[in-house]
């Protein structure tokens, strides 16, 4: 009878741990998106640096340097979003482990679980704020007329 109670107890713990696992899957998707965005920023940076080496005029170099500085800020936003999303994922993992410890050893860890979950959500919110800032910076130039950077880049690629 005792082993049946243990099986039921573990089953209940696993049911409680399913919800944080779904959150972990969402965080993983966010990490995938932000890693792809960071990769695109880095590719664009390589193109701008390559064009910058071929520039002779100071005005063109200044335009490309301004674009490079924007990309550096965007990459820092991506990096911040990735770091906080990873932190959020770690807090989810700690929450799941704590749920199992609480259930198996009959320890009241409800305040610690609440703390871990609130920390997870705080990190996730900060990550999403970094992501929104990066997306805003990336799309801001779309709504403007073609910038000088694109003109300089097209001339340097020929």
Structure notes:
The chain is mainly alpha-helical and 158 residues long. It has one domain (2-157). 90% of the residues lie in helices and 0% in strands. The chain is built from 4 helices and no strands. Helix 1 packs antiparallel against helix 2, helix 1 (2-54) crosses helix 4 (148-157) and helix 2 packs across helix 4. The termini are far apart. The model has no long low-confidence stretch (mean pLDDT 86).
Strand content: under 5%
Order of helices and strands: HHHH
The count of helical stretches stands at 4
**Overall helicity:** over 70%
Count of β-strands: 0
The structure class reads mainly alpha
Largest sheet: none
| Low-pLDDT segments, ≥5 res | none
Radius of gyration: 24 Å
How far is the first residue's CA from the last residue's CA? Answer: 79 Å
Overall tally of structural domains: 1
Concise summary:
With 158 residues, the chain is mainly α. It has helices at 2-54, 58-105, 110-140, 148-157.
Note the topology.
Layout (H helix, E strand, L loop, with lengths): L1 H53 L3 H48 L4 H31 L7 H10 L1
Tags for this entry?
158 residues; mainly alpha
């Amino acid at each position: 009878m005792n082993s049946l109670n243990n099986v039921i107890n573990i089953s209940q713990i696993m049911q409680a741990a399913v919800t944080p696992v779904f959150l972990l899957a969402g965080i993983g998707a966010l990490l995938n998106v932000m890693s792809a965005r960071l990769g695109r920023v880095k590719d664009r940076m390589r193109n701008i640096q390559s064009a910058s080496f071929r520039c002779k005029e100071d005005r063109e170099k200044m335009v490309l340097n301004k674009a490079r500085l924007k990309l550096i800020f965007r990459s820092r936003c991506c990096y911040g979003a990735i770091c906080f999303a990873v932190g959020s994922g770690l807090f989810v993992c700690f929450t799941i482990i704590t749920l199992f410890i609480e259930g198996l050893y009959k320890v009241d860890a409800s305040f610690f679980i609440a703390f871990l979950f609130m920390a997870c959500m705080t990190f996730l919110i900060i990550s999403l704020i970094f992501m929104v800032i990066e997306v805003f910076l990336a799309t801001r130039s779309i709504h403007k007329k073609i910038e000088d950077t694109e003109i300089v880049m097209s001339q340097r690629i020929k």
